[in-house]
Fold this protein.
Amino acid sequence: MSFPKALASIWLVLATLLPAQGDADRALKSVLLIGDVSWNSHFQNVQKALKGEAELVRAPLGHLSSGAALARVDELLQGRRWDVICCNVGLSDLMYRDHRTKRIRAMAPGAGGVQVTSLESYGENLAKLVARLRRSSGRLLWLTTMPLNPRQRSGAIVAADIARYNEVASSQMTRLGAEVVDVHAQIEAELSKAEDRRARERLHGQLFKKDLSGPLVARISRQ
């Protein structure tokens, strides 16, 4: 084999072993999804929608209040820097608990339950949480707490409190310059189409079986 042909053969082999330049430059956007168990299906739909376009990782929260999230924030961030962090805590904050034990045990307010986190402390916790999250990401998307699904109804949660805590959260995010994705308003807009309470409850159950991730997916994808 002549030298030019041998050289061409070597370059052909190298070309098959090395990644294309375009693939090397096209790094996936890293996205961290933080939220309690009520966000499971929503976050799963986001992951499906952005498969191949972004690396989406869900932080295991379970039932976590803003104070507990602060205590575990380093664990949640996994020692990484993220392009985008999507976060919501709130449902476990506004829940009423048994004040006689340090453990979080649900108890209706009528039975003497007290809220896990006061409205004032919730706002303070969020300010600290945002400051910490921003050290690990240049972009934070705050998600408003969703309306409670009738199937998840609990005497330890007062539905009207969700709007109150969302108002405090949105006010803090506006003050701190974080982006707000109002998932609560998105779902309420759909529920407003129901004719009565029974129809609203039925519609609410149906909504949680649908993919409502479109607005969040669009915001994550925005440069």
About this structure: Residues 10-26 have pLDDT under 50 and may be disordered. Residues 82 and 151 are 34 Å apart (CA to CA). Strands lie at 29-34, 54-59, 84-87, 96-97, 114-115, 140-143, 179-181.
